[in-house]
Amino acid sequence: MTQFSVSGEDRADRLLAMGQRLLQLIQAEIVALRERRLDGASIDFEEKERLAHAYRLEITHIKADPTLLSGARPDQIQNLRAISSGLETALSGHQAALSAMKEVSEGLVRSIAGEIASARGGPASYGRSGTLQSGARPDSSGLTINAKA
Questions:
Q1: Left (φ > 0), alpha (ψ -120 to 50) or beta: where does 135 sit?
Q2: What is the mean pLDDT of each run of 10 residues along the chain (149 residues)?
Q3: Cα(53)–Cα(47) distance, rounded to whole angstroms?
Q4: How many helical (H) and strand (E) elements, i.e. helices and strands, does the chain have?
Q5: Is the pTM of this model over 0.70?
Q6: Which of 5, 68, 95, 120 is the most exposed place for a label (fewest CB within 10 A)?
Q7: pLDDT for residue 141
Q8: 3-state SS assignment for residue 32
């Protein structure tokens, strides 16, 4: 395989384009999560994952060898810093939106499980003390909850 050299200016342009598109995808996903559209997170999943991976690799290479950006214009460097900062902010918002969605989903599942458990009651029976018990078992449920999901 032949390696070709990429100028610092071209590398910066490519990195800026990747960062801007990644930022757009993350912001769109945050909006979808806040609107409680579960499918919104998976619409551009493959593109987002591919871009995130490529962006991370490129940043890793540049950190290892800063001369890769030699020749980049000052405005490109400034824009790269702005994109990097924007991505950090967006990812923080993304984490908050995911946490909120998880709490809502888990609360809904717990509520449904509680309703099922309270609606189901076994036949009345006698307890150890000889008193009649209603047979309701609040801890039994026909719903399985996967805490890792």
A1: left
A2: 69 95 92 78 83 94 92 94 94 88 85 79 70 57 56
A3: 10
A4: 3, 2
A5: no
A6: 5
A7: 46
A8: helix
What are the tens digits of pLDDT across the range 96-133?
888 888 888 888 888 888 888 777 766 667 777 777 77
Strands 132-133 and 125-126, by their bridges, are antiparallel
The tokens describing 62, both together, are 């540049």
Whole-Å CA distances, 38 to 18, 22, 41, 105, 133: 25, 19, 6, 10, 43
Q: What is the dihedral of CA 75, 76, 78, 83, to 10 degrees?
A: 140
Domain layout of the chain by residue ranges: 8-118
